[in-house]
Automatic annotation (TrEMBL):
Top-level taxon: Bacteria
Biological processes annotated in GO: polyketide metabolic process
Any Pfam family the entry gives: SnoaL
Protein name: Ester cyclase
Organism: Pseudomonas tohonis
SUPFAM superfamilies to which the protein is assigned, alphabetical: NTF2-like
Length: 148
């Protein structure tokens, strides 16, 4: 098994290759064959191919996207990252309209690694309500009901 420092390095490298550089083929080399991506803004899990397509669509819509890793913590076979995504939407993406506003979106991800040190699963939670507010969109009814 790889060390916790190795897993943190791989998570940071995966983020940089995928989101900051758009070099998804290189990021895929860090993933297991049964890789899964789960996210608060996706209706269901994505396999490696689905993840690649999603990243490329988002990067196409947000060419100035930069993902800054704020915190990276590892324990056993897991890594936790807290990131800030910064950029503007130039083309419609994931049902959201273009905007000339520079957006700042907080995201937290829980990474699971297999015994070979490959990324097996990423489960990401985005602060979608803040994202929607920055775009000037109203809160979703479900989120309003979920609040105390």
């Amino acid at each position: 098994m790889t060390s916790t420092d190795d897993r943190k390095r791989v998570a940071r490298q995966h983020i940089d290759l995928s989101w900051n550089k758009g070099r998804v083929a290189l990021a895929e080399q860090l993933q297991s064959k049964d890789f899964l991506y789960k996210s608060s803004f996706m209706p269901g899990p994505l396999d490696g191919e689905g993840y690649r397509e999603m990243v490329l669509k988002i990067r196409d819509a947000m060419p100035d996207l930069e993902v800054v890793v704020e915190e990276c913590i590892a324990e056993d076979s897991h890594v936790f990252t807290w990131c800030t995504l910064i950029g503007s939407i130039h083309k419609p993406a994931l049902g959201y309209p273009p905007s000339d506003r520079i957006l700042s979106i907080s995201a937290m991800a829980f990474w699971t690694f297999n015994s070979r040190g490959e990324v097996q699963e990423i489960c990401t939670m985005f602060d979608m309500e803040s994202f929607r507010a920055q775009l000037g969109l109203s809160n979703r009814a479900y989120a309003e009901k979920a609040l105390p």
